[in-house]
Write a structure and sequence with these properties.
alpha+beta; two-stranded antiparallel sheet; 7 helices
Length: 260
């Protein structure tokens, strides 16, 4: 039975900036990827209002894209983006993966019990003709992660196709069989939903750190404490950006039903 070590690094689409937030979860190998998604939502404090997917990456494809981005000038990059936007309606072509695991209806529910994901329209731009796709409710963790062809490959969970919060996942070790998810380690306060990706999160933390916050910063803090879908009435002051609630997470994970 695997002990899934799960490390989260939020980053925006240009892959700059990484909030220092991670969780390590013990996971039942027979859980579906939909169950895993629900556990990650609880562990990271997300509100389950957006669309998600899991991706097994192809290192050679990653290297090719990185080399292309490095060789292109800023002017070339902008020209490519505008051309692809004009011809295909998206700023960049979809990335090819070894496997992509998607929610059952990416044009329907954006998470468990949440109704339609507000960013469902971005799913089509992520579909590559050479990337096989499976439904999250139909495939179990061991059916994918025990396969030799996927072992050692970069594994990613992405939530919110607008802010593009990506979570890098690593298998720490295997352990005795377990029937439930459990959080065994972690660090960092959960990230605010709809904050505007990494830049927005850094601005929110800066607002709490300011000696004399301006009006915009005060508004940001009020929004997080009163209006955000995963609001925290206590805010992030006095070092709370480093806090996390392990017991609360495990209480919620204990109520999560895992498909037999």
């Amino acid at each position: 039975m695997p002990y899934w070590g799960m490390h989260h690094k939020g980053r925006w689409m240009q892959r700059k900036g990484r909030p220092d937030v991670f969780r390590t979860l013990s996971c039942p190998a027979n859980a579906t990827f939909e169950n895993f998604h629900e556990a990650l939502q609880i562990a990271f404090g997300w509100a389950s209002t957006h669309t998600f997917d899991f991706k097994i990456k192809e290192p050679a494809e990653e290297a090719r894209v990185a080399a292309e981005e490095q060789n292109d000038s800023q002017q070339d990059s902008i020209a490519k983006m505008l051309r692809h936007l004009r011809e295909h309606g998206t700023p960049s072509p979809p990335t090819r993966y070894l496997l992509r695991i998607i929610e059952d209806d990416p044009h329907g529910p954006g998470g468990f019990g949440s109704g339609k994901g507000v960013d469902f329209m971005h799913n089509k731009a992520r579909q590559h003709p050479q990337t096989p796709e499976k439904l999250a409710s139909k495939v179990r963790l061991f059916e994918v992660l025990d396969k030799q062809r996927f072992q050692g490959k970069p594994f990613e969970y992405e939530y919110d196709f607008g802010d593009c919060w990506t979570h890098d996942i690593a298998l720490v070790r295997r352990d005795e069989a377990t029937a439930n998810f459990k959080c065994i380690d972690g660090a960092g306060h959960y990230v605010a939903e709809d904050v505007g990706s990494t830049r927005g999160w850094e601005r929110l933390k800066a607002a709490y750190a300011a000696r004399e916050p301006n009006e915009e910063q005060r508004n940001k803090m009020r929004w997080f404490e009163k209006q955000a879908s995963n609001r925290d009435e206590r805010g992030l002051g006095n070092g709370r950006e480093r806090s996390w609630a392990k017991d609360e997470i495990n209480h919620s994970l204990g109520a999560l039903a895992v498909c037999d």
